[in-house]
Write a structure and sequence with these properties.
With 128 residues, the protein is α+β, with helices and mostly antiparallel strands. The protein has a domain of 62 residues. 21% of the residues lie in helices and 6% in strands. A hairpin with a 2-residue loop joins β1 and β2. The N and C termini lie close together (9 Å). The mean pLDDT is 87.
């Protein structure tokens, strides 16, 4: 479910209270919107091991690469990612510079057709 916020400020606290407690909605662009006191979402906690949304200290899952969702840590991606190693070897044979990793795969939505991003991407549908 996608949502967004519009912040409205009032000069008088009683006006804000009226809008959030008594009236509770306002018409914006012909859409009735609920008015309530703004509370910011806490930051997303993402495991550095499996890329799931929990603390690493409690994780019992296998390590997944943040870049390609394979079974290695992000710091080892250059040495353990078979696709990147093959691309580097092919580039070296041609005397070219090795390409930057172009096969991003999210560990959280890797089975989806929309998984071509890193696991820490702020636009990841699972993260949102």
């Amino acid at each position: 479910k996608y949502t967004s916020s519009v912040v409205v400020s009032f000069e008088k606290e009683e006006d804000a209270r009226y809008m959030t407690e008594e009236r509770q909605n306002v018409l914006l662009y012909w859409v009735s919107c609920i008015m309530k006191e703004f509370t910011d979402k806490p930051p997303v906690i993402q495991c550095e091991g499996c890329q799931g949304f929990h603390r690493k200290a409690v994780c019992k899952m296998a390590v997944k690469c943040q870049l390609c969702a394979e079974d290695h840590h992000k710091n080892e991606h250059g040495e353990k990612c078979m696709r990147c190693m093959q691309a580097r070897a092919e580039a070296a044979d041609k005397g070219e510079t090795a390409p930057v990793c172009t096969h991003r795969r999210c560990a959280n939505c890797k089975d989806s057709k929309h998984a071509n991003h890193a696991a820490n991407d702020h636009q990841c549908p699972v993260r949102i």
